[in-house]
Amino acid sequence: MSVTSVSPAPGSTAGAPGYDRADWASAFRNVGVELEAVELTATRGAIPAELAGTLYRNGPGRLERGGQWVHHPFDGDGMIMALGFGAGAVSLRNRFVRTEGWLAEEKAGKYVYRGVFGTQKPGGAVANAFDLRLKNIANTHVVRLGDQLLALWEAAEPHALDPHTLETHGITLLDGVLKKGEAFSAHPRFDPGHHGPERMVTFGVKAGPTSTVRVMEFAAAEDAARGVRAGQLVAEQRHSFKGFAFLHDFAITPNWAVFLQNAVAFNPLPFVLGQKGAAQCLASKPGEAGQFWLVPRPGAGAAAGAGGAGRGSAAAAKPVLVEAPEGFVFHHLNAFEDPQSGELVIDSIYYDDFPSIGPDTDYREIDFETIPAGRLQRCRIDLATVAAHQKANQKANQQANEKVKVTVEVLEERCCEFGMVNPNQQGLPARYAWMAVAGRERGNDPLQAIEKLDLVSGERRVWSAAPRGFVSEPVMVPHPAASSEDQGWVLVPVWNGARCGSDLVILDAADLSECAVIELPLAIPYGLHGSWAAS
Ligand code: CO
User: Fold this and answer.
1) CA 462 to ligand 1 centroid distance, Å
2) pTM of structure
3) Which of 281, 396, 459, 473 has the fewest CB atoms within 10 Å, measured from its CB?
């Protein structure tokens, strides 16, 4: 494992892949144990004494039942890991989310539900046709909201867990905010104080020929002065848009909730007939551009910050539709309103096409060269032209406003995913990004390294787990007494192919030097998202 400082050098040589496919594929397995409060020590280095809180991670922990493997790891059951840090010590706990599907399938010893990403029940198309039940597998993200821990899966309601024991309380409707079965995104954004106390901003999509997006803002902490409890819904709005919405993530600024609607079509027939999973029925529409849906945030008129256009009585204002660049986006890095130019800036990871795994492909055999690589791109939307043309072409939220000026710039060409900025800069201009990147500078490979990118100077710094280590999403944790944006740590789960086990690596966020490596007594498949809850 090594740190290198790399200056911007587009066109540098790609080199040969620096990993062994067997090492990469060895992470696909079942987690066989649930551990309770196991005290661990650092195998190398020392755990920083100021690191105090809990790292929660979610991801598929069960990929096989009765000899049948899931078609795609995203169909694996959600398993939560909690690493509690304090006074230089660390304690580990892990537990599967007791979803209805998990309980039924544990009992049956086989799959009794179809997976959204193509896993079918035994018995072929006949057994799967017209079974349109969704298995809420709670495997995508895990966040603290007040005294609750929420395991998230975007197509249905969250599961509430005990934040200390990880015991599953069950599906929660968040005190009646949600209807039974209502979609609730797995990508909340934590507004660090754009409008006063911290908020969790999130959304749900009801997709169809016309799609409705519900944007919800929850108080993240108790606000006794205003009689607001932690977890209480403080604002919401609904907007309908023409077309089938595929929205995995979004971004926020003080004045806007920013959605990128990819140019995709949904043909449900193979799903209904039992031939494909629902997500496999999505296809990109070549030659068609996506759209940004800019939804004014409620209460935004009182916000601090720049922008100008689109401000004022924001709660009553209508969404603005703007043409997006070509490409497919799952995740955004951040968005902000540029105080100098008055532009709305959105940084996202773009793929040339929708990366899907066909019904006859084994994901463990994927040829990385044949699937598109992610690149980090910045879009600047001129809010002054939005204001000038806001009334034109906005009939029933259908057409993008072609007169709005959008400029695009590639920030990082190296294959990347899972980017984040310092959480205190969420929705605000941020200097630094931390993200997972491929081992090589060019070409599509598994994610094996962590990059710190200076978004102003373009300077890069890389820590690599290659050749035998493979990274999941990094979580940046600010130092509690930070005096600069990059003071803190980056917590990285690593699949260690050499010992067929999982490590947690703690990096110094400023220079990506290794603070500590903790070898976990667990072997966990590649995870999805995680979050930090300070103590
Ligand atoms: Co995601």
Assistant:
1) 22
2) 0.92
3) 396
